[in-house]
Amino acid sequence: MATETTAAEGSSLVFHPMDQFIVKPLFGDGAIAWYTPTNVTLWLFFAILAIIGLLVLSTSKRAIVPTRMQSVAELAYGFIYKMLEDICGKDGIKYFPYVMTLFMFIVTANFLGLIPTSFTTTSHFAVTIPLALAVFLTVTVLGFVKNGAGFLGLFWVSSAPLALRPILAIIELISYFVRPVSHSIRLAGNVMAGHAVIKVFAGFAAIAVISPVSVLAITAMYGLEVLVAFIQAYVFTILTCVYLKDALHPSH
Amino acid sequence: MATEPISEEVVGSCVDSHGSAIGMPQLCFDWFPNQIFWLVITLVVIFLVLSRVALPRIAAILAERQGTITNDLAAAEDLKAKAVEAEEAYNKALADARSEAQRIAAEARAEIQSGLDDAIAKADAEIAAKAAESEKAIAEIRAGALESIQVVAKDTAAELVTALGGEADAKAIDSAIDAQMKG
Amino acid sequence: MEGDLAHIGAGLAAIGSGAAAIGVGNVAGNFLSGALRNPSAAASQTATLFIGIAFAEALGIFAFLVSLLLMFAV
């Protein structure tokens, strides 16, 4: 890290781009046990509040002509519903609450993480790996329950020449087990990268000459991050739908 | 970030004495159980809220709106049908009125025509009567004229014969004049 | 010295981000040229576009992650 050298020179240029991801206890300085309320807890709680506010409170009037918040809620509903229906077909609709939970949680946590000085829960592998593993296990279990051994047909590419099939099966198997890895690292990596880059630019702002450039760069990165926050939630959800489709219709 | 020194053993092995991260905080496995625990609680709460309250409610709202729109469309369809009906009735009334008007006009024309025909016939008859009368009068006049001519011719012939020194034979003159008149 | 080598490695790993940028550009550019040829089919393929971009970008993120690991975790 650059901190040792710059600190030695007595310069004000200090980078701590990863400090924003530190998990701290909310009360006191104690060690973090599995039940300790931390800033993770706080921002997860805010995510719950935001989701309830958006999807429950805004629709409490059940207006035929929707208010602004209610139309946002309906938009989110229609967006995910249509995505699931387009990809998985009619029999995928059963899993709509599950997919909607994933999407709403990720998109809300991403946007809450864009609030300055907030804590971004989705930038942690500890959050995204369970999400991706949950999808992976659901899809695998569902595939075997729905199709029995026929689910293994997903790895046996029947349209390929017979000699190639074992090799393809190995490749398919590897790509199947890499899914949760890429699924989780994509989300956490994107979110973390954006936040770290913003923090690096913020570190440059300590130098008076380049601080205007730095502020402009932060603004531009922030705009990009708003886009990324939505697109990564969208990509996570659409990949969940694609994996679900594999479980429901494993024919290759 | 915290700048005040924090004793290392209370915070954990991932944060140095100045509160800065050692390595990547994402890879600090001391914090994993905590994060996973709270994440699972959050996801369960969100799932319950969504599947029990939010999603059925939004589905109901959307269905209700769809129903309202369908009803409104049906009502609009009804109104449109009524409008078409009214237009048809209006057109029919208009056509009726027009044919009635035509009928009345035709009747009037027929009446006038028959009156005219009568008048023409009457006039024709009168004209014919007058013409017959006139012809009769003319025939009489002509007959009168012929007789006068015969008398004048006989007289003139007799005078001519006498003037020429002959003896007027009345009978011969009469017959000659008659023959001339007939020829 | 060991830390210096790690920094060099981190910089080399960051090249992967540029490679991912080429990949994402390829996906988006080809989508655009296809969409301009047949605009009516473009709307139905935006999901595929995003999946493609996500896959291409994920590998760039892996490079970034390697770089981060070399910077902070070695």
From TrEMBL, chain C:
Gene Ontology MF term list: lipid binding; proton-transporting ATP synthase activity, rotational mechanism
Query: Where does the chain cross the membrane?
Result: 6-28, 49-73
Mode of membrane association: Multi-pass membrane protein
The record ties this protein, via Gene3D superfamilies, to: F1F0 ATP synthase subunit C (1.20.20.10)
Protein's cellular compartments? Cell membrane; Membrane
Q: GO cellular-component terms in the record?
A: plasma membrane; proton-transporting ATP synthase complex; proton-transporting two-sector ATPase complex, proton-transporting domain
Matching NCBIfam families:
PRK07558.1 (NF005733)
Q: Which HAMAP family match?
A: ATP_synth_c_bact
Name-wise, this protein is ATP synthase subunit c
